[in-house]
Amino acid sequence: MYIIPYFLENEAKKLLKIKLSEFINEITNDLLDNIFRYNSDNKYENLMLNFEESTRKSILKVIVDTFKILDDLYLKSDDRKKQFNICVKKCHRSIVTIFGILEFDRVYYYDKNDRKKHFYFIDTLFHLPEYDRYDKIIKGIAIDNAIATNQKKGAETTSNQINSILSYLNNNQPINISRQDIYNWLDKWNVPNIEYSVIESESDTLYIMIDEKYIHEQLKTYFKGDTKIETKTTEQIKKEFTNFMNWLSNPNKQLLLPTPKTKSRNFIMSKAFITFTDIITKGKRRILNNKFTFLTTGKNPWDEFMNTISKIFDFKKFKNIKVLSDAGSWILAGTSNLKLFCENVIIPCLCEFHAKQKINHSTKDESLRKKLWECIDNDDKTSFYSIFKTILKDKDSKRTKILKSYRHYIISHWNSIKEMKKSKYKSSMESHISHDIAKPFSYEPKAYSTRHIQKLIKLQEYKLNGINILNLYLNSCNNQEVSTIKKEQLSFSIFDNHSSNLPVLNSTDFKISHLFRILTA
């Protein structure tokens, strides 16, 4: 409906060529000034910094002039005059872009047949975000940086990216994104579900490493034991203050102190599943082949995992499915879900880290530690009990209870420990948990809401599986509800330079210009 008339294309082209010529002349003069006129020991640095600063300003000016040309052409067009009247001739707007702050004026129109219908031609033509100071590219970059680090660091990094280096050196950055901005953008984004590509493998064994990590949840209530303590009213605070002042005047009187509040410790348990088929060596690095990461904070992790992994791997091909874990109760309870076909054999393997940890905590005597491992290797439970009996000797009741729990843990998972020792590939889950969950979400003291952490965890999973977060945001930020996107569909086809709603941009002559590359980059 609101498209610039085709017969105005030639006029728009001429005007834009003039502006492009001015842009090139301005940049060229600035470059020559820095090379020939200014003498300085830091000539190279000045050249680069001033050139970057002037290029940013010139690009913004070209975009503003482009808006002005197109808006004026539409203002004077017969199509506009037939249907729309001017409501406000100059409405100012500013948008934060990757080049800096874009400030421009545009005309506000209303429909002659229905005065309730208003629109900005420029906003409609370029699909500019409504009631928003930041464009989608900035938001996507900020969210991408936040997922790679955290929201605070992501805000700082993005602010530095979109401000010129010169303004950064002068401590005069006009754009400062806050972590609350990133939180709000994430909160409004209906993060889509990704349908991952199928992973082909010739291996007959699938390895699945599983573990969990507790993340602090934002506290909502106060508790003393199991009893909820309500928030104090102003009257209660005044009463306690009066009581305290009376006690100061008469110290012999007993002071009735308020009952201290104790905060409940709320945690969100995040679960991580990492699958691979084998390990390949590249130089000094060992890389998990056909690796796939699944993260969740949901209450039914196994159902979520199986719904995803069954579409990625062909379970008919896997004779053995080895589960490498610390044998947590929730893990063991769900391993049966992995048997999708009668050919599948589920083999639980206890991570050597946890077995070694229990043995090393049982005694400091290296010879006894070695003997305990020999008992496991030789499948000699009798000698194992005998050695533990020696360790338990002369220990107090508290220490005895701890040591017996270690012994029970090892005996309960005796076969799983032996399976791990026979396994071709061992577990590296502790390092994955540290890098993938602990570092971004619990390394520093933080707390999250249940809803927000699920989004962050899922985006972290996407990033680990090679999904471009900026691309994902640009493709789905306007979704009104959660959708499903195939990984293959995530491309920049929506930004195809050969299709544009601006006829002037479709011109063959214009497409070879520098301005076209700027506007459609």
**Tally of strands:** 15
Sequence stretches where pLDDT stays below 50 over 5 or more residues? 498-521
What overall geometry do the principal axes of the alpha carbons give? elongated
**Biggest sheet: strand arrangement:** 12-9-5-13-14
The largest sheet is:
5 strands, mixed
What structural class should be given to the helix and strand makeup?
alpha+beta
The number of helical elements comes to 22
Fraction of residues in β-strands:
15-25%
Please estimate the helix content.
40-55%
Q: For the record, give the distance between the C-alpha atoms at the N and C termini, rounded to a whole number.
A: 26 Å
Mean pLDDT: 83
Query: Rg, please?
Result: 32 Å
Key traits:
alpha+beta; 22 helices; 521 residues; 3-stranded antiparallel β-sheet
Structure characterization notes:
The two termini are 26 Å apart. A hairpin with a 2-residue loop joins strand 1 and strand 2 (100-111). Helix 1 runs antiparallel to helix 2, helix 5 crosses helix 6 (151-162) and helix 6 (151-162) crosses helix 8 (179-188). It contains 22 helices and 15 strands. The chain is an alpha+beta fold and 521 residues long.
Compact summary:
With 521 residues, the protein is an alpha+beta fold. It is built from 22 helices and 15 strands.
Secondary structure topology:
Blueprint (H helix, E strand, L loop, with lengths): L8 H29 L5 H34 L1 H6 E14 L2 E12 L6 E3 H6 L9 H13 L2 H12 L2 H5 L9 H10 L4 E3 L9 E12 L5 E3 L2 E3 L4 H16 L12 E2 L3 E10 L1 E5 L2 E5 L2 E5 L4 H9 L10 E6 L3 H6 L10 E6 L1 H11 L3 H12 L3 H12 L4 H16 L1 H9 L6 H14 L7 H15 L4 H8 L7 E3 L16 H4 L1 H4 L2 H6 L2
Parallel strand pairs: 4-15, 5-13, 13-14
Antiparallel strand pairs: 1-2, 2-3, 5-9, 6-7, 6-8, 9-12, 10-11
Helix pairs in contact: 1-2, 5-6, 5-19, 6-8, 12-15, 13-14, 14-15
